[in-house]
């Protein structure tokens, strides 16, 4: 069965599996340290995750059979396009994305502008960080679905990443006027977070959680978002409760496992955090999970192991790029963090910002400049990144770092203190740096 | 709503809904930094606010009262613990009654819910046998209030009334007493809220497969051997809200009887992004997210691209959807997929417009369910027609004037009735009474699922006790 899958999906899966092995390779000791009482729970976890994942797999193969029988069935093609996106979310196997694109493109052709297929292409463009394309598809879907809330999610999300916040918030407001729901409450929550209203974001995300009405994945998703918000606010206990609830609603939920590692790290328990991060990378080797594990290993002085994780991140990013996912912005920040070829990194960050002129695009350029030693030049970019009033510890830290490297140590410490006040656990890697300077 | 695209032959879209629903949560593989694009759900599957069916009838055991029932949350798996389905405290559930034909609410019953969790540190729904909704062993409890709203103001009829718990199994529920969930509102008025067996019955599996009707399989464009129908809603539960009130509570004074138009809805509250103006989240306007009057309209009549809009719109403005009723896509599909049947007219279907949007007049001009020229998708009930001792599931088509489309009883086989109406097979009774078309054999087609799997109760709330998780061994 496995062999068949590899043949079918081709190279990228094989690499993803190899990656799984690579990540799992450093796991032996944490397996050994699993206490006997947690082992049965972990087993049940695994069993349930397998069951849940196989739903997406079996739906996909049923749809593939339908499309083979009726190659011009626009509805089946649309469903298949969405099913491939679901599989990508379940497996992180980016080779599903070109196949989703192929199915949806054909659905649009044979279905003569089928609205759901257009939305599917919009959603795919968002996944690939092609935000201008996403906006175009979203606008087209708006014309095809008058009075529907659906296209506003694609349109608004794209506008956020394009830095057009006023238009984005207008789209979200329209969306929630048409249909208050998990999807629109979640977007209001994000908009509130961007403008610095974090208690408001928590309130909106709580409404999103209620609207999930206990459906496993949406419930887990909303719990993880709440965990992130609560952790940023320094409410570690609430964050832990939400993470646990997410894993209860959807056993093995990968982003909940990553969040659990964040919670453990914030609680000061590095071994527990490393254990949790390893479980997360083992289940789904996302760049996010592997980066976190690398940072945690680094912090506990295990630099060789940390470096291996970082090599893995580079491979994951190349795989994503090969499947059409633009990760320039994420790569630029990551490379700046790790001082990889600073001159090239600045150029990469500028390209990323041209594609994604959001506050995080500005931040990426500023951070790359600052890490490359161009400190004064960095500051206007990092100031721009703060223009919405976002209370993001990492944005404050970057701003402070630039001040420090420009020789203004007092200003640096003020920003570092602000970063820690905004979120005591803003970064596994940089929060300890900020803390050392503030207390030192 | 979730019943999706029943009958339309677009079963596909249901599967799409499932895929999209699953798509909502999911892993978000992303780049290295936390600043990655945040992939929030695009489509909201919202079962707690998904209104699936509405029933209205003169109560068989209490002729001076009318019972209105609305169901929410489709396809509840009875074994779906530990997070059993429940009403959403942040949503607003309403039963709407128009009593003068203008399709505006004259009387509204609003249900609101509260959830309390005894011990937040356990994931258990109950920690021992549950004898009643107030049992301390029940960890997750819900209560509700009912508010009656008229142009004269609003009054709370009951608050803190218990919602029945989930029916889990012989250990958790050694007995399951429906009466514990019936609230006494005084003066013979009653309310109910809680899980129930889904009273709808329909052969979803076959109908999704290119409008298949198993009993008529040989007559299909793609013929198969004939077979008995299979109830696709069998063994699933739903959440019911219901009231039983004197007819006069619903009618304009001083009438003792009349024709009312009924629909149910669920609404959610809008919130604002910027709260700088000091507004709180509890101040936003309520937005209707689902509605239902006549059965299967969203599924059969309204095209895919208009479903969201239809669900958010008011029945009062249904004239904008007139063409979908007059030229139903389903009629063309029936002609295409059942070539051996005589063709049914595919446009100028004023018969369907009358039955579904205005109500029907008798030949002498007396209104039977007619409420005026205002076109609105409402379930119309003539309260003067007394309950039948032995109801016929084919209702008015079989000459049983107390049944659908005069209101809707739990036993009414609305799938068969609507298929026959669309196929112009109204039957000899209606042909004689109203001169409606009666093609043969179109007047005998149906999905061959003619009754619910569980017997209905003889008293309020009538809907059968929820299927028990313990006995639930999967769906065929």
Explain the overall architecture.
The complex is a heterodimer of chains A (440) and B (476). Chain A is mainly alpha-helical. Chain A has a domain at 327-440: Alpha Horseshoe (Serine Threonine Protein Phosphatase 5, Tetratricopeptide repeat), CATH 1.25.40. Helices cover 79% and strands 0% of the residues of chain A. Chain A is built from 25 helices and no strands. The longest helix of chain A is centred in the first third of the chain and has 31 residues, at 39-69. Chain A is globular. With 476 residues, chain B is α+β, with helices and mostly antiparallel strands. Chain B has one domain (11-24, 42-269, 284-456). Helices cover 15% and strands 22% of the residues of chain B. Chain B has helices at residues 11-24, 204-208, 247-250, 297-300, 307-312, 322-326, 329-337, 350-358, 414-422, 427-434; strands at residues 51-58, 65-76, 91-98, 107-117, 140-150, 153-162, 182-186, 189-197, 237-246, 259-269, 286-292, 379-382. In chain B, strands 3, 4, 5, 6, 10, 11 and 12 form a seven-stranded antiparallel beta sheet that branches. Chain B has a five-stranded antiparallel beta sheet with strand order 1-2-9-8-7. Chain B starts with 10 loop residues before the first helix and ends in a 42-residue tail after the last helix. The relative contact order of chain B is 0.17. Classes of the chains: A mainly alpha (440), B alpha+beta (476). At the A-B interface, helix 4, helix 5, helix 7, helix 9 and helix 10 of A face helix 1 and helix 5 of B.
């Amino acid at each position: 069965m496995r062999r068949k899958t590899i043949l079918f999906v081709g190279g990228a899966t094989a690499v993803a599996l190899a990656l799984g092995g690579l990540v799992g390779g450093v796991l032996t000791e944490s397996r050994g340290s699993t206490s006997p009482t947690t082992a049965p729970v972990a087993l049940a976890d695994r069993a349930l995750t397998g069951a849940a994942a196989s739903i997406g797999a079996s739906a996909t193969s049923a749809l593939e059979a339908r499309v083979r029988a009726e190659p011009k069935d626009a509805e089946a093609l649309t469903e298949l396009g969405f099913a491939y996106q679901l599989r990508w979310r379940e497996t992180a196997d980016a080779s599903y994305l070109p196949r989703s694109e192929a199915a949806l493109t054909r659905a649009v052709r044979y279905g003569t502008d089928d609205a759901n297929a257009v939305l599917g292409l919009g959603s795919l463009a968002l996944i690939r960080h092609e935000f201008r394309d996403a906006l175009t598809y979203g606008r087209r879907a708006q014309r095809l679905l008058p009075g529907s809330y659906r296209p506003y999610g694609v349109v608004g999300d794209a506008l956020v990443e394009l830095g057009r916040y006023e238009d984005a918030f207008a789209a979200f407001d329209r969306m929630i006027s048409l249909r208050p729901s998990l999807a629109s409450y979640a977007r209001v929550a994000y908009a509130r977070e961007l403008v610095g209203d974090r208690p408001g974001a928590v309130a909106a995300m709580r409404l999103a959680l209620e609207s999930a009405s206990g459906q496993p994945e949406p419930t887990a998703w909303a719990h993880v978002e709440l965990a992130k918000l609560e952790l940023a606010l320094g409410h570690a206990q609430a964050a832990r409760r939400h993470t646990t609830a997410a894993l209860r609603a959807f056993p093995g939920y990968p982003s909940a496992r990553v969040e659990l590692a964040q919670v453990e790290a914030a609680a000061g328990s590095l071994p527990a955090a490393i254990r949790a991060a390893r479980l997360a990378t083992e289940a789904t080797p996302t760049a996010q999970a592997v980066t976190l594990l690398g940072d945690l290993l680094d912090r506990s002085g295990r630099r060789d192991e940390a470096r291996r994780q970082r090599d893995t991140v580079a491979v994951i990013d190349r795989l994503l790029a090969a499947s059409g996912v633009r990760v320039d912005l994420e790569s630029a920040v990551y490379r700046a963090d790790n001082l990889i070829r600073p001159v090239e990194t600045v150029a990469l960050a500028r390209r990323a910002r041209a594609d994604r002129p959001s506050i995080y695009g500005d931040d990426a350029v500023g951070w790359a400049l600052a890490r490359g030693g161009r400190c004064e030049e960095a500051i206007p970019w990092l100031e721009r990144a703060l223009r919405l009033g976002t209370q993001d510890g990492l944005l404050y830290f970057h701003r402070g770092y630039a001040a420090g490297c420009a020789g203004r140590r007092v200003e640096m410490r003020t920003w570092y203190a602000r970063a820690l006040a905004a979120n005591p656990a803003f970064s596994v890697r940089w929060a300890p740096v900020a803390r050392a300077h503030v207390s030192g | 709503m979730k019943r999706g695209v029943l009958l339309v032959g677009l079963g596909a879209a249901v599967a799409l809904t499932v895929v999209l629903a699953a798509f909502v949560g999911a892993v978000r593989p992303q780049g290295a930094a936390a600043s990655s694009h945040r992939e929030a759900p695009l489509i909201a599957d919202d079962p707690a606010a998904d209104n699936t069916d509405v029933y209205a009838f003169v109560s068989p055991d209490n002729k001076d009262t009318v019972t209105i029932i609305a169901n929410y949350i489709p396809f509840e798996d009875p074994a779906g613990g530990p997070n059993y389905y429940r009403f959403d405290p942040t949503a607003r559930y309403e039963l709407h009654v128009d009593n003068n034909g203008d399709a505006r609410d004259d009387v509204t019953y609003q249900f609101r819910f509260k959830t309390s969790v005894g011990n937040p540190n356990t994931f258990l729904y109950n920690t021992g046998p549950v004898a009643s909704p107030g049992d301390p062993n029940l960890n997750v409890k819900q209560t509700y209030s009912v508010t009656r709203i008229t142009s004269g103001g609003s009054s709370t009829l009951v608050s803190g009334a218990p919602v029945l718990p989930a029916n889990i199994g012989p250990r958790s529920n050694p007995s399951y007493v429906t009466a514990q969930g019936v609230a006494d509102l005084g003066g013979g008025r009653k309310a109910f809220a809680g899980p129930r067996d889904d009273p709808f019955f329909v052969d979803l599996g076959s109908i999704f497969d290119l409008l298949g009707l198993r009993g008529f399989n040989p007559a299909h464009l793609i013929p198969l051997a004939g077979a008995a129908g299979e109830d696709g809603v069998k063994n699933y539960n739903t959440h019911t809200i219901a009231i039983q009130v004197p007819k006069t509570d619903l009618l304009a004074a001083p009438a003792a009887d009349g024709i009312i138009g009924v629909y149910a809805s669920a609404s959610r509250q809008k919130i604002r992004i910027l709260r700088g103006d000091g507004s709180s989240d509890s101040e936003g306007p309520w937005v209707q997210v689902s509605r239902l009057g006549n059965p299967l309209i969203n599924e059969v009549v309204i095209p895919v691209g208009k479903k969201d809009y239809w669900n958010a719109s008011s029945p009062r403005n249904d004239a904008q959807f007139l063409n979908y009723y007059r030229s139903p896509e389903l009629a063309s599909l029936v002609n295409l997929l059942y070539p051996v049947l005589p063709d049914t007219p595919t446009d100028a279907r004023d018969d369907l417009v009358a039955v579904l949007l205005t109500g029907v007049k008798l030949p002498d001009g007396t209104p039977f369910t007619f409420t005026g020229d205002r076109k609105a998708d409402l379930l119309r009930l003539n309260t003067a027609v007394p309950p039948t001792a032995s109801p016929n599931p084919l209702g008015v088509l079989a000459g049983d004037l107390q049944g659908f489309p005069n209101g809707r009883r739990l036993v009414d086989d609305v799938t068969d009735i609507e298929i026959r109406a669309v196929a112009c097979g109204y039957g000899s009774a209606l042909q004689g009474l109203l001169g409606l078309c009666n093609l043969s054999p179109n007047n005998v087609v149906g999905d061959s699922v003619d009754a619910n799997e569980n017997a209905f109760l003889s008293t309020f709330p009538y809907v059968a006790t929820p299927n028990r998780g313990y006995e639930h061994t999967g769906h065929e």
